[in-house]
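Tokens in:
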């Protein structure tokens, strides 16, 4: 057996896999990175941590962890309408495991290349497995998609097919959105597990919506919980028809109506976008979505009130037992 690699060898393994960008004057290797921000644009910064046992089960493949650690941060940039540029990575590992690191980098680097984001620095330490990424991007002044911009009468939209990742969790034996069991064929199981393992951050869609949508958030904790953030920040209520939510074929085949509503309205981890926009922008948004290759669906409207107002197809109030994941909530520790 070869000796465990030292910190510098690990960092060198990381450095070899980095995407090259012209605006990185000095990347990994010095005391800090030296970067050339484009003139006239606003810097958007996001940070998200993944802890073993909290954000992913202990046996999760390293490549899936690498993908997800970057995906959740790209999703935050997307939700702001920002174009990704740079990221940093703080990696805490119980031991210097080069094979694990290479697997991690397979997932991380594949997604980084897809979105042209350069890893420009970080920190490597010994400790419980934990991955923290910061992502940096740019948006034109006044064009960022904020939570506080929804206006009365706006349409409420979602991208993709929410609920798949939560279904993937349930199939992996972890209850989500109050659902602890669903039945799925092997093929559907694989499709739903993949949606959980490899969320696709809606980067191109978010950037296209900048300056068009009035507000936006990415759905990490559950559609209703996250939509309520827009509602509260904007002083309005997002009325959402839980029967208008588009379901993937795999989810539709695997869940009855009640289960599907719960997973789609209250399940997290999809990293789709929920946004509001004026009715006058409908055609433009449909065209953008086609161009980005991401389906978008109108699922409600912005009304007077505060937070979120879930309704069924008949317009009757619909309330799940729990609306989304919250760290430190008494029943989720
Ligand atoms: P210092 O002791 O000056 O903080 P380090 O030895 O921690 O330097 O890091 C050396 C270089 O390697 C720095 O440029 C740092 O940003 C980079 N680096 C360290 N760990 C990582 C990592 N996990 N991912 C990316 N870059 C890293
Ligand atoms: Mg350091």
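Residues out:
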């Amino acid at each position: 057996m070869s000796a465990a690699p030292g910190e510098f060898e690990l960092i060198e393994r990381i450095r070899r896999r980095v995407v090259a960008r012209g605006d990185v004057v000095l990347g990994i290797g010095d005391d800090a990175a030296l970067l050339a921000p484009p003139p006239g644009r606003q810097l958007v910064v996001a940070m998200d941590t993944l802890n073993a046992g909290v954000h992913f089960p202990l046996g999760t493949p390293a490549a899936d962890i690498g993908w997800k650690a970057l995906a959740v941060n790209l999703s935050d940039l997307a939700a702001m309408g920002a174009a990704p540029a740079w990221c940093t990575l703080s990696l805490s590992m119980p031991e210097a495991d080069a094979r694990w690191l290479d697997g991690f980098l397979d997932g991380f680097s594949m997604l980084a290349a897809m979105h042209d984001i350069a890893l420009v620095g970080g920190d490597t330490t010994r400790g419980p497995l934990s991955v923290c990424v910061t992502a940096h991007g740019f948006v034109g002044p006044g064009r960022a998609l904020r939570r506080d911009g929804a206006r009365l009468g706006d349409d409420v939209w979602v991208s993709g097919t929410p609920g798949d990742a939560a279904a993937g969790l349930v199939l992996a034996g972890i209850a989500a959105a109050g659902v602890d069991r669903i039945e799925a064929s092997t093929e559907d199981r694989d499709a739903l597990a993949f949606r959980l393992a490899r969320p696709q951050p809606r980067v191109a869609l978010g950037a296209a919506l900048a300056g068009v949508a009035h507000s936006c958030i990415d759905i990490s904790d559950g559609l209703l919980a996250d939509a309520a953030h827009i509602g509260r920040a904007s002083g309005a209520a997002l009325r959402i028809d839980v029967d208008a939510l588009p379901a993937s074929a795999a989810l539709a085949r695997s869940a009855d109506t009640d289960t599907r509503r719960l997973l789609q309205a209250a399940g997290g981890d999809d990293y789709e976008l929920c946004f509001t926009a004026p009715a006058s922008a409908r055609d433009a948004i449909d065209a953008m979505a086609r161009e980005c290759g991401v389906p978008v669906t109108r699922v409600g409207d912005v009304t007077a009130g505060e937070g979120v107002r879930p309704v069924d197809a008949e317009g009757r109030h619909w309330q799940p037992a729990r609306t989304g994941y919250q760290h430190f909530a008494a029943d989720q520790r």
